[in-house]
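Review form for a predicted model. The reviewer records the input and the model, then writes brief findings.
Reviewer: anonymous (R2)
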Amino acid sequence: MTHGDAPVGKAPDPNDWDHHWDAYGEASERSPAVGYRLALILKLLGRPPAGSTVLDIGSGQGQFALRLQAMYPDLAVWGVEYSAVGVARSRELAAQRGSAAKFRRVDLLQPTALADGQRLATHAVCSEVLEHVADPVTLIRHARALLAPGCHLVVTVPGGPRSAFDRHIGHFQHFTARKLRQVLTDAGYEVQRVLRAGFPFFNLYKLALIARGKKFIADLENRSPGEALPAESMVKAFFDFGLRRSVDNSPFGWQMVAVATVPGKDGS
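Model under review:
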């Protein structure tokens, strides 16, 4: 039996994120690509002023929100996430760490509103979310109900070819810089810049996953909690070292990153 509720011999639904966080959440925590993105996001987000509210849109299992709250205890950090398992994992980790970060389950493909005690966010992140929905414009447009005018937003999405694992976890598409800019513009944001980050080591990491194909999926599905994949430590050490030396903006980068703002009330 694999992790989650998928029966033996039956592939899980690519959009079943309750299963995906059960099966792949531990591997995600150790992924060198995740670490690279977190560092890049923190650089582009900047240091929010004390008392600011920061929103993680599609917060997964809470990695970024919990890290940000630990770095800056004077912020109000919220995460909104579609997966009930992701929210449960986030809340459990927050309790274990004594973190003040708060998490709630929200389907941003539907109109939404602030929760009790939640303020409009002055800073926000949406990392590796938009590729998972057929209508990314609607999702990021609905998120604006949770963001203050002038909110500083950092968005990341994958570029380059999709791997078997990408398709397995429901990537509808990968983005070009032009496509990412268009999605945010159509959703009503003012795009400041779009970066093509990660060359060459992020690209090499993605190519390694493409080469593994479905074998990588099988390894993750069948691993036991705490079990390392073959050569995982060596691969992680290599890419951790390399990704720190990747270029943040290059014509060839496959990690797309956008910096945008929410227009003011007067449209400015």
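Findings: Strands lie at 53-57, 76-81, 102-105, 121-127, 147-158, 190-197, 255-261.
Further findings: The longest strand covers residues 147-158.
Recommendation: see findings above.
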